[in-house]
Amino acid sequence: MMHTLKLARLASYIVQASKGHLSVEMLYASLDLRGPQNGHLAISKDYDGTYEMRRETLLTGDEEIRGDYLVLDYCNHEERICLTEYKTLENAERYILGGAGVFNSFTNLVLVFDHLRLRNYRVTYRSRRDDRRVEFDITARNIADRPYRDRRIEWLGWNLADAGRRERR
């Protein structure tokens, strides 16, 4: 079943979950959507292959967002807000735990939407010092533990209960 949600509703969930990092206005001006079902809403690359992370025409909120597994990645340093579609939850996990995900020192926020419902998760790794499992905190990274060995993700449940309601045409 194809899952769709109006951008306005999705943006409200993102803003609430971002705890002050993002606003609806920021999303409408800078959200870059990637993936086969939302690619028509991408911010296009300019001639030298770099992204201009501001839209010439703002999104309105009426756009339909599609996808079963979406990951929102926010990097304040680059002023980059990307919503990327993944085919499976396992593919999304690989991104989250990889070098560009939560362990990237420039990443400020990573949200996961599983069938358009915001999904809570916890990330752990093995500490370098005493080899115990440590819960990763994106707001207080312990750089002494790099390269964050044995990274794992644990899915905790759902957030924002009505985020799972589907909008149909």
Characterization of the model:
It contains three helices and nine strands. It starts with a strand and ends in an 11-residue tail after the last strand. It has helices at about 5-20, 25-30, 90-95; strands at about 5, 30-35, 65, 70-75, 80-85, 110-115, 115-125, 135, 150-160. The model is unreliable at about 160-169 (pLDDT under 50). The chain has a domain at about 5-120. The strands form two sheets. Strands 2, 4, 5, 6, 7, 8 and 9 form a seven-stranded mixed beta sheet that branches. A two-stranded antiparallel ribbon has the order 1-3. The chain has about 170 residues and is an alpha+beta fold.
Compact overview of the structure:
This protein is of the alpha+beta class and 169 residues long. It contains three helices and nine strands.
**Radius of gyration from the CA trace?**
16 Å
**How large is the count of helical segments?**
3
H/E topology pattern: EHHEEEEHEEEE
Q: Average pLDDT value? A: 85
Main beta-sheet strand count, sense and barrel state: 7 strands, mixed
- Secondary structure category: alpha+beta
Question: Would you identify the regions where 5 or more consecutive residues have pLDDT less than 50?
Answer: 161-169
Q: How many extended strands?
A: 9
Distance between the termini: 13 Å
Shape label = globular
The helix content is 10-25%
Q: How much β-strand is present in the residues?
A: 25-35%
